[in-house]
Amino acid sequence: MSATRSLVVASNNAGKLREFRELLEPLAWEITSQADHGISAAEETGLTFVENALLKARAACLGSGLPALADDSGLAVTALGGAPGIYSARYSGAQGDDQANNDRLLEALAEVPEGQRGAQYHCVLVYMRHPEDPVPIIVQGSWPGEILSLPRGEGGFGYDPLFWVPDQGLSVAELSPDLKNRISHRGRALTALLEQLER
Ligand SMILES: O=c1nc[nH]c2c1ncn2[C@H]1C[C@H](O)[C@@H](COP(=O)(O)OP(=O)(O)OP(=O)(O)O)O1
Ligand SMILES: [Mg+2]
Fold first, then answer.
1. Catalytic annotation on 133?
2. What cofactor is needed (predicted)?
């Protein structure tokens, strides 16, 4: 794993891209985003995080000629039967509008009392060496928490101001980037991925 690798991160989400750059920095790999290669967003037609991550990775491999790392992730709220799940980025209707998505989540949980607002962040990562890679590496990470009634904090992205981490007594948007990366669904999944790449 000490050799320099070139890797395209198959995402258009600036928050994810920042976290991957931070997480992968110690490895000194050559990292580009799919936008750097003029690759547009893959259509997320899968019914699982795994299927969508495979679609994103394959499109990025095809468009770049490089190995790709894709992330499909989201928030599963127990009181909502696991919603918004794979539809987290499109929850409000508008793709990727964090504020509108957070507003819709607060509305959906308006009548749900504290103690019944448990949720999980899930992250599936796919590492695909080339578009026909028959054995892409697939890993996942989850992170339990609770959904707040009001946003807290300025850091992170997406649902982070509403995601309470009981162990820390803080929302994710109040955690330092380093701490989030160490304990998050994405950080855990990436640790598992790097272990498999080392083999
Ligand atoms: O650590 C996180 N902190 C806050 N929110 C998060 C996190 N991880 C996922 N999320 C939310 C953002 C988005 O609403 C959805 C992911 O959707 P997802 O399709 O995987 O990503 P995306 O559309 O934002 O970018 P892209 O598909 O180009 O990677 O879950
Ligand atoms: Mg997406």
1. no
2. Mg(2+)
Tell me 97's DSSP state: -
What's 130's domain CATH number? Answer: 3.90.950.10
Give the containing element (helix H, strand E) for 129: none
- Residue 109: give the domain boundaries: 6-198
| Best probe residue, ligand 1, of 8, 16, 36 (max atoms within 8 Å of C-beta) | 16
C-beta atoms surrounding 35 within 10 Å: 15
Phi, psi of 103 (to 5 degrees): -60, -45
> Which residues does a 6 A CB cutoff place in the pocket of ligand 1?
11-13, 16, 41, 44, 71-75, 88-89, 96, 101, 121, 156-160, 184, 186
Q: Does the model's ipTM exceed the 0.90 cut?
A: yes
Q: What is the pLDDT of residues 139-170, one digit of tens each?
A: 999 999 999 999 999 999 999 999 999 999 99
